[in-house]
């Protein structure tokens, strides 16, 4: 693990102290400290396969319709983490929102941890495991309805309860995209963290940022590094915990 330089933390503190409108753009690396695996690392979700099928194949609209039992078995075991709790990254962002410094969180995660931490200005690009609905009558169901069911989860009307996440082969929710683009365009500081910026169209959203300071916090290089004001190699939860604790 890369040691986080005190000079980088000082620079980040200074940027945040002088920002008027901060937007945070995050990916799977934001939640790894909460025990939720990421996607594209050597130990991530996409490194695994089930019966020679990739995660992208299983978590697709077509697979849900063609093989619903296999879809839900994989979904329950790989995407639902009911005991996960917000980590330092989520808690610090909630503190910034309470101070009206943070104007929006644009997240690729579906784990709902930003909202569990308290944040309300959240744009969940890929939906949330906490919002589920019947495919027939559109009745709403909590995560537990899928988690504690067997086989294909069914509504009282007999319809299938599907997860409230964006599956492969589905477009992003237009109103969420509009809100995310608006916040990014109006921000004067943007922090991009815990993401490889490899998933489109979400990754291209940062191209709409034209503010003063772009900060990248990630364990690996990203396409945004070249245009960033500040790049910090490391885990975002560790970085934000140091900021909260005043650590050097």
User: What is the assigned CATH homologous superfamily of the domain at 1-36 and 86-129 and 172-248?
Assistant: TPP-binding domain
Taking the sheet with the most strands, its summary is: 6 strands, parallel
Number of helices: 9
Percent of residues in beta strands: 5-15%
The Rg value, from CA coordinates, equals: 18 Å
Low-confidence stretches are none
Range of helix content: 25-40%
The assembly state of the depicted protein chains is single chain
Textual characterization of the structure:
This protein has 248 residues and is an alpha/beta fold. The protein has a domain at 1-36 and 86-129 and 172-248: Rossmann fold. 31% of the residues lie in helices and 15% in strands. It has helices at 6-17, 55-58, 61-66, 68-79, 88-98, 113-117, 143-147, 174-186, 236-245, and strands spanning 22-26, 102-107, 122-124, 132-134, 140-141, 161-162, 189-193, 213-218, 230-233. It has a 6-stranded parallel β-sheet with strand order 3-2-1-7-8-9, sandwiched between helices. Strands 5-4-6 form a 3-stranded antiparallel β-sheet. Helix 6 links the parallel strand 2 and strand 3 (122-124).
Could you list some keywords that capture this structure?
Rossmann fold, six-stranded parallel beta sheet, 9 helices, 9 strands, elongated
């Amino acid at each position: 693990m890369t040691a986080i330089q005190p000079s980088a933390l000082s620079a980040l503190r200074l940027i945040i102290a002088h920002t008027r409108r901060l937007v945070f753009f995050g990916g799977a690396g934001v939640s790894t400290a909460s025990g939720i695996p990421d996607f594209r690392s050597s130990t991530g979700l996409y490194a695994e396969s089930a019966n020679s099928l990739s995660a992208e194949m299983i978590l697709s609209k077509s697979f849900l319709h063609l093989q619903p039992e296999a879809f839900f078995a994989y979904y329950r075991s790989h995407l639902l983490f009911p005991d996960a709790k917000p980590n330092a990254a989520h808690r610090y962002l909630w503190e910034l929102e309470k101070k009206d410094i943070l104007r929006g969180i644009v997240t690729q995660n579906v784990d709902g941890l930003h909202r569990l931490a308290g944040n309300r200005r959240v744009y969940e690009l890929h939906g949330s495991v906490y919002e589920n609905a019947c495919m027939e009558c559109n009745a709403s169901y909590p995560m537990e309805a899928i988690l504690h069911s067997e086989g294909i989860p069914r509504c009282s009307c007999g319809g299938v309860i599907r997860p409230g996440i964006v599956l492969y082969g589905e477009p992003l929710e237009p109103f969420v995209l509009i809100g995310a683009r608006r916040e990014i365009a109006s921000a004067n500081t943007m922090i991009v963290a815990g993401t490889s910026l490899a998933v489109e169209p979400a990754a291209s959203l940062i191209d709409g940022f034209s503010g003063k300071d772009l900060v990248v916090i990630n364990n690996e290089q990203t396409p945004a590094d070249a245009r960033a004001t500040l790049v910090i190699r490391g885990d975002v939860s560790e970085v934000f915990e140091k900021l909260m604790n005043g650590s050097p």
